[in-house]
Every structure is written in C-alpha cells, then in structure tokens.
Amino acid sequence: MNSDAISSIVILTGAGISAESGLATFRGPDGLWEGHRVEDVCTPEALARDPLLVHRFYDERRAKLAEVLPNAAHDALAALDAAWAGDLLIVTQNVDDLHERAGARRLVHMHGALNSALCAACGKAAPWSGALSPGTACAGCAAPRLRPDIVFFGEMPYEMDRIYDAIAEANLFVSIGTSGAVYPAAGFVQTAREAGARTIELNLEPSAGSALFDESRMGPATRLVPDLVRELLQ
Ligand code: APR
Asked: What is its EC number (predicted)?
C-alpha cells in the first residue's frame, strides 16, 4: 500500500481485536450475548426491570479486565498512534480498557467503558473499578443513581460528531474485528467510502459489511494488525 498518499486514518475496532486476549466476543460460538439475551442486560428497560442482573453482568466483565492483557494487535495500534504524524482516530466499540493499556491515546469509546460509572441523574461519568451496586451515590450530585457507563441498545453512542468529523477527513478507514452487525458503527465504512477513503477490513471471517470494503484481509488480528501497521510505517 502506498502510505505516502495517506495522511488521515480512522480505525474502527470491535470485540474481535480483544478475542486473543481472552475476552469473549458477542456473536461467536461462546458469544457473551449467548449467555444472556441482549434485552436482559443491555437496554435501559433491563436496568429498570432488574438492576441487580444488569449490574452483576457488568461487574463480572469489569472484574475480568484484571485477568487479561493487551495483545499484539492493541500494541501495534498504540505504536501506530505514537508514530503517525498525521491525523488518526481509533474508534472502539469495545468497553474493555486494552487499547489504553497498550498505550493508545487518540481513542474514543463509542459504546462506553467498563472502568467508568455514569450518574443517571446528573449525567457525569467517573472512573470506576470493582463492583457497582444499584443505588450507589454519585460523588458529584449525591443521587443514588450510578450505573455502568455502557451505551445500551437504544441509547446514543458517545462522541458521534467527533467520529463523523474524523471519517469525513480520512483517506484510510480500517475496520478490525467487528461483525458489522450493529449501527451506527456498521455504517462507518459506507460513510468513509463516500468521503473518498480507501477502506480495509481485518477480520477472522467475512462480516456483514465485507462487500463494502476495497480490501478484506481474513485472519487473526494479532497477525493482520501488526502487518498493516508495518506497511503504514515503512
Ligand atoms: N481476530 C480478528 N477478528 C476476530 C477474532 C480474531 N482473533 N476473533 C473474532 N473475530 C471477529 C469475528 O469473526 C466477528 O466478526 O470479530 C467479530 C466480532 O463480532 P461481534 O462478536 O459481533 O462483536 P462486535 O462486532 O464488536 O459487536 C459490535 O454489538 O453487541 C454489541 O455493543 C456490542 O460493541 C458491540 C457491538
């Protein structure tokens, strides 16, 4: 690839980039959602109906973060972030902290983060580790309304203006480890194409959006991502 022609990159990541670190994906054979119906753990209605189940589901996933490490794919993206002189934005659908633990800085968590708690009363988010019980008080407004800082289905993802602004300027859009099953992230590739960007998919298997990419490379992220970063930094 002629990286000289590339000045601005947007990279979308999904659960597949963290799979080789030992975190379950959502729609694979042992997918997380298979353990729970989405409607039971990842909607505002679920939180209202059974707060203990929802908090426990995210408490388990938050606790798991202490057992896993960033993999070579996270490390390669962090190295690209550090070395890339042009514009770059990593947009992750993941709520794990592996990108930041690898050292990524130009990063957006569009679906929220496990290591953050959100006050449903005042809207403020704060770093959070450990269990989060229903009725925990917000340090800012004191309302007993802290919840997992996760964007539930039906809620607006975070930083969408920043994401679309970056895609509008991108001349390379790379999608890594996502099934292309959930919007608005699944529509980013089309938006990037319309902005004239070259589009590349790195995934273990064809995704719902594979046909939309200029190039689809199939394989594990820990091999494909370091290879692509080497091409970009050569
Ligand atoms: N390397 C590369 N890709 C992989 C690997 C791997 N080692 N392992 C799995 N994959 C791919 C799978 O082939 C699949 O296409 O990663 C993708 C994971 O897809 P999903 O489980 O659907 O996860 P994701 O696309 O991130 O889901 C998007 O849906 O459930 C919501 O909010 C949730 O952010 C999530 C969103």
From this structure: 2.3.1.286
Pocket probe for ligand 1: among 11, 20, 25, the residue whose CB has the most ligand atoms within 8 Å is 25
Going edge to edge, which strands form the sheet with 8-13?
A: 107-109, 87-92, 8-13, 172-176, 198-203, 215-218
Number of domains the chain contains: 2
Determine if the pTM surpasses 0.90: yes
Same domain as 198, residue 231: yes
- 58: domain CATH number is 3.30.1600.10
Give yes or no: 111 in active site: yes
Over residues 8-35, the pLDDT tens digits come to 999 999 999 999 999 999 887 766 676 7
Q: Is 162 in the same domain as 62?
A: no
